[in-house]
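thread: overnight batch results

M.L. [08:02]
morning all. the overnight job finished for the chain we discussed friday. pasting input first so we're all looking at the same thing
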Amino acid sequence: MVSAALAVGVGAGLALARIRRPGGEARTGAPEGSAAIEPDDDRPGGKHGLKGLGRKSLDSLRVGVVVLDADDHPVLVNPAARAMGLLRSGGAPGTIAAHPILRTLAGQVRRTGVRREVELDLPRGRAGGGHAPLGLHLRAVALNATHVAVEAADVTESHRLARVRRDFVANVSHELKTPIGALQLLAEALLDATQLPDAAPEAQSEDLLAARRFAERIHHESARMGRLVNELLELTRLQGAEPLPNPEPVSLDWVIAEVIDRTRTTASAKSIDVAYEGPKGVMAYGNDSQFATAVTNLVENAIAYSGENTTVSLTLRNSDDWIEIDVADQGIGIAPQDVERVFERFYRADQARSRSTGGTGLGLAIVKHIATNHGGRVDVTSSLGDGSTFTLRLPARPPESPSSSPTAIEIESGVAGR
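M.L. [08:03]
and the structure it wrote out:
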């Protein structure tokens, strides 16, 4: 990727310098629909003979490179970009235009001055053909005030492997739901059969007491396995096995009320008070059930790792661009070496504590994927013995409506050229 970025800079500079009007003046734009570029020839230029070397280096790259001018017309395209289908027929016969997603990325970079990176799947051919979609990693960087370079890497194979992995997890989870449900029903039947409410404990036989203990253990473990399967299915859906629902305005008043209601029983069992502080009437944009799931997972995690007779605090802050929800507890805290890993799947900072609380190790991973899918993020600050504060950050504005382009998932943003 670094070599590609260098080639973009060198190749774009050389190529743009060679785009001339018939009168010899440098041209910064092109008529609509045009994309004619004089190819570099083999004649040496300058004392180092690099006149055609920049273009040859660009053409030899396996990644596609497209440079768009101020009007989003392609002024530089290498063969890899053409093979990936990043060009379309222009408005006039014999002209070409950039793919709509490239024009969208270029417009965002010009408006914000921030580089953009997305991963998406493009259908092959007019009707998609019978082939798998082409997976692309696109990176758009501003070259100057008007020109934007878009680098495209083929990630079709990694996308295919990710789909295979998601399908495998989803299929296994679906198959496990039936036997786990049967185990839970059988365990409940055993509990009912071994329950003798009218007899004193000392009057019950040892075999009956042992059978009841085993039935309680079976019921507990089957319930835990059921939660694990359900969370695996939820995580698989969030990772792209199902399309994301269209973002809609969501009342965070409803989300907070739903979270407090869902966690009321668990908190009462440990005499923990879930307190909320924040403004009323705040709206976020996304999926209401996913927002409720994310905040519920954070609150349940805080309750699980807090002692009795403590407080879990929910705090909401909003600005023009972002909404932040803090979930703070007075629990055991997280060691510095574990802070960066708590959002990994199945990672537990305290293995013994997780076994006693029945945790699956997937709750925080689900929160992270929900935040990422909505263009936000989740962070944590903690120290051992002083509790933890998880911050869910969500966009306060509706997402930009795409211009007839495929759905893309933004994975990184940074200052152009960084």
